[in-house]
Amino acid sequence: MNAPIQLNQHDAGVKLAFTCVNEKGEPIDLTGLEVDFTLYFDGTAVNEGRTRCMKTDAPMGVAEYTVTGDDTDAAGLLYGKLRLEQGAEYVRNIGSIPLLVEADSG
Would you give the end-to-end CA distance of the chain in angstroms? Predict the structure, then answer.
């Protein structure tokens, strides 16, 4: 498993950038695909209804998700799931991405 992405409790505006690649390490062209990043805390989605990623370089497989304060409201370990979709005929889940939200010290 990858080392967790480190965030602080109540962080907002942090952009998480992803490069989607296939099994050969080649970029997946995101043109025409919906890209969503769902964050889970204790098995419950914390960003339901606002999972959409911005495709910053679709042909090269690059997308980003902007963290909101609601995403980092609770300290602890979250897991993000990146999902690529084009209707019912194409759905692809890309791994599990850990995020560690550090508690406020104040």
Answer: 31
What pTM was computed for the model?
Answer: 0.88
- Assign residue 72 a region (left: φ > 0; alpha: ψ between -120 and 50; beta: otherwise): alpha
Number of domains in the chain: 1
CATH number for the domain harbouring residue 79: 2.60.40.3350
**Distance (Å) of CA 29 to CA 66, 89, 93, 96, 105:** 21, 16, 15, 20, 42
82-95 pLDDT per residue, tens? 999 998 778 888 88
